[in-house]
Amino acid sequence: MQITFVQSGVPRPAPVLDEYVRVTSGMGSADGPMTDAADGGARKSGEARDTEVSERRFRFLVAGYAVSSYGTFLNMVALNLFVYETTGRALAMGLFMAVRLASGFVAGLVVGGLLARFSAKSIMLWANVGQGAVMLVLILAPDGLLTAALMAVSVVIGACGTLFMVALRSSIPEMVGEDRRAWANSLSITGRSLAMVAGFASAGVVVSLVGYTAAFVVDMATFVACAVTVALLPIAGGKGAGGKSAGGRAAEGSGAGKDASAAKGGRLRRPVAFLALAAAPGMGLMVALRGVDAFGSSSHNAALPIYSTSLDASNPAVFVSAFWCVWALGNIGAQQVIQRYAQRTGRSVGALGFGYGTVVMSAAFIAAFAGFPLAVTAVIALIAGAADGLTEVAYTSHLQTLPATLRGHAFGLSATFENLGFGVGMILVAAALDRFSPLAVVGWSHGAAIVVAVVFLLRVAGVRRAERAGRAGLRKEEAVEGRPDRGDRDGAEVPGG
């Protein structure tokens, strides 16, 4: 699988598609006054200390995020079981999930505006406080108000989960610096993957041993722990992200100053984000592919219990649990590789990594339902997890190259597309599974993701061919004018198509 990397902060060739915003730290000194070596060494030492401090703080933030993610995955199981036991109807469980997804959909539409008005820290803090508070309401609710309390939980959990995720991801470049965003993304995904395994694995044990109320108390405590972590840490980002990044460098980019002035007072509107996605080469198609991928994800999530029941009707949970545990191992393994590479080279996974990773992941999920022996299926689940980890880091890192004032809107729109794709997919897949086999349903759903991914890869290839042709023409023009190619042109000024 071919992976394209981009490097921030140094004047090296960088495809326009792989980085829409050139990070300017370290590049402006040629235009300003020269400083002596001692000053340069002191500045580098100070920047290294700042980077170390920001990374240590981010690790604490990820620890808090992992704790709250454990609560999220625990309540995904415990709340669904509680809804079914309380109402006795599978339809109520589906309605609960639908309300949760719809709340996330709406939150994705408004979070960009919230980030233009409020700090990322305040949004992350109150998102956790809201989730903890609504769990307390559920714990204290009398029997006559349980249904209303459950609906309130589904609304708040769905909306606040999206608000926290978008605020975190869009603010990572300000927290740790542009050149460390791939490392930070990988670390946060690792924390969430570990939390997912722990949450899914322990949910049944917690509910069966200590009951639903105790499970909800544990859930509430995880959100409180994350809120305390956020409250204690200085977190950059939000308010149009016009502040400075971890190394004290201004968050600059193509048109960032103009966008910042437009965003003052929260005047940046959602259509601006749509226009940004349309203007950036391939970005709109990338977000659309993410939505189609979420549609495919709904198919294997819905089909796994049915397929597991066909393998072992007496204990269907065994295969589902084992599959997700192996998937998580692959995901975590991929994150470790990405983290080490990013830490050693300062590079992040590019657009081609996202496209190829989506193809491999979708093909692996289809193969998982093909009836292979369990050992082969375990290897397939491992590959699916690794590819899923690669695509998430590539996708998140890529959106983070947008100007800071547009980044929150782009992540919000992305969350909206993902919730829409997953929600619509759950409805269509549930209907299709009544008539077709899990392999057929998963094949159609993930097949659509593969088709869109191939279109995306062709788009990337076309942009890069145009970029190479533009650079070749520029060199030829310089040679004709008697200026030999100095080797210092990186094509940044050549349109990407």
Q: How would you explain this protein's 3D organization?
A:
With 497 residues, this protein is an all-alpha fold. It is 75% helix and 1% strand. It is built from 13 helices and two strands. The chain has helices at residues 37-87, 90-117, 120-140, 146-176, 181-232, 256-263, 270-279, 283-311, 317-345, 351-368, 374-399, 404-432, 438-480, and strands spanning 5-7, 347-349. Strands 1-2 form a two-stranded antiparallel sheet. α5 packs across α9 and α8 (283-311) packs parallel to α12 (404-432). The chain is globular, with a radius of gyration of 24 Å. It starts with a strand and ends in a 17-residue tail after the last helix. The relative contact order is 0.15. Mean pLDDT is 75; it is low at 1-38, 241-270 and 483-497.
Secondary-structure blueprint of this entry?
Elements: E1 5-7, H1 37-87, H2 90-117, H3 120-140, H4 146-176, H5 181-232, H6 256-263, H7 270-279, H8 283-311, H9 317-345, E2 347-349, H10 351-368, H11 374-399, H12 404-432, H13 438-480
